Amino acid sequence: MIALPPIPELQTRVRTARGVTRSADEAETRVKVDAIWSGVEQLYESGLYPAIGLNIRHRGEVILDRTIGHVDNPPEGEAGAVATPQDTLFGLFSASKLLTALLVHALHEDGLLHVDDFVCSHLPGFERHGKHGIRIRHLLSHTAGIPDMPADIDAEAVIESGALDVEDLFDLRPQSAPGRRNAYHAVTAFQLLAGICERASGVELRELARRRLLAPLGFEHMCYGVGAQDYGRVAKHYRTGPPIAPMMKRIFERSIGIDVDRAVELSNSEKFLSSVIPSANVCTTGREMTRFLQLLLNGGELDGTRVLRPETIARATTASTGVQLDGTFGFPMRYSLGMMMGGNRFSLFGLTTRGAFGHLGFSNVVVYGDPSRDLAVSFLNTGKPMLAPGMVRWYWVLQQIALAVPRK
User: Fold this and answer.
1) Beta strands of 260-308 (E only): which ranges?
2) Using 50, 70 and 90 to split pLDDT, how confident is the model at 77?
3) Do 42 and 21 contact (CB within 8 A), yes or no?
4) How far apart are CA 21 and CA 403, in angstroms?
5) Whether pLDDT at 9 is above 60
6) d(CA 311, CA 45)
7) How many other CB atoms are there within 10 angstroms of residue 154's CB atom?
8) Of 353, 360, 323, which is closest to residue 339 (Cα–Cα)?
9) How far apart are alpha carbons 65 and 348 in whole angstroms?
10) Gap between the Cα atoms of 46 and 52, Å rounded
């Protein structure tokens, strides 16, 4: 591992990795996991990430399961308890979309909907303002043309109340024809998908996730939000790094509907943690996250229990769009029906990861499965920098994983 030079960050307290690493059971492996972890320690010492959790599952075995930092560690102030792989829960933010997307595919398999259905056939009234041609697949692949939150919705009140009436999105006006243009839909598409799932199944989304996928596979924590007894186990999030560039602030506020700093603050609230937010508030451990990814790598079966057919998983994890400059992010993206796809020259998961599938979460949460390596990675954190030089170290860890684990 190459030692990167220290990088100064504004609004960030430099931390030392000494004494704040915890580990769980790890299988023996030839993969140089200690070299990968050395990169995580350097990342932690940048001060951008008060807590980090990394879980790597290779060929179905957990070969690295460690955390570093504290459950509650504000940029300025006294740190709380040290985070642990077994007990600390991390918020996934937008990586929560993986669970919501898989529920859509499960209901397709069950015959309760079809990904080629028009949205308005499940949500009458949605067709207003020329949206009659939008299909479920367009919502899943971020090509529906409605990426921004309505200006008249109080996003802060939505988070504080824990509810958004799906009909509040019916007056959205499309910015492009369905299927024509990639533009990441941070909230809108998956709120609509949740409404479709609930109406098609007759079951509230959290309960649907538990019944259809999570309980049969023995997941203990992974779901939308947490119970009151677990509020204290969820690692708290903090804005770190330099002030946000005006352009990035506008993109965030347009797609989320709220200021970045306020969004981070609200993400630590009990209301956010107890709500069902289909695009943003799944909480879990790194080990459970890679189990979920292993379910996808296995084609819908896990530990002898099958919950989805292989063709369902293939539909969810196969690229649906070509590489395009994303209309929200402004960099090249490729989507499946519900997931972000890897690539060889540009990839959120490290170079040479074409065929990998997963998701990014605000702002540097990343989870993915790579079939070519039989690899599942959960790289979670609580720091929320928007753009900072020290983030190079974050991507360096991802690249080290891709280099260390050979393709099959």
Assistant:
1) 282-284, 301-302, 305-306
2) confident
3) no
4) 24
5) no
6) 44
7) 11
8) 360
9) 21
10) 12
pLDDT of 14 reads 65
Give, in degrees to the nearest 5, the angle at Cα 135 between 129 and 336: 130
What is the C-alpha to C-alpha distance for residues 213 and 291, in angstroms, rounded to an integer? Answer: 12
What are 337's two structure tokens?
């029906």
- Closest Cα to residue 76, out of 6, 8, 12? 12
Q: In angstroms, how far is the first alpha carbon of the chain from the final one?
A: 23
Q: What pLDDT was estimated at residue 4?
A: 44
- DSSP letters of 20-44? -EEE------SS-HHHHHHHHHHHH
High-pLDDT (> 70) share of the chain, %: 96
Name the DSSP letter for residue 371. T
Which residue has 């690899």 as its token pair?
375
Closest CA to 7 of 349, 329, 240: 240
Burial class (CB in 10 A: 0-12, 13-18, 19+), 217: middle
How does DSSP assign 174-233, residue by residue?
-SS-TTT-----SSHHHHHHHHHHHHHHSS-HHHHHIIIIITTTT-SS-EES--GGGGGG
pLDDT tens digits for range 179-225: 999 999 999 999 999 999 999 999 999 999 999 999 999 999 999 99
Under DSSP, the state recorded for 120 is H
Task: Please state the pTM of the whole predicted model.
Answer: 0.94
Phi/psi for 210 (5° steps) reads -65, -45
> What is d(CA 38, CA 52) in angstroms, rounded to the nearest whole number?
13
If pLDDT is split at 50, 70 and 90, which confidence band does 385 have? very high
In degrees to the nearest 10, what's the CA dihedral of 332, 337, 340, 344? -70
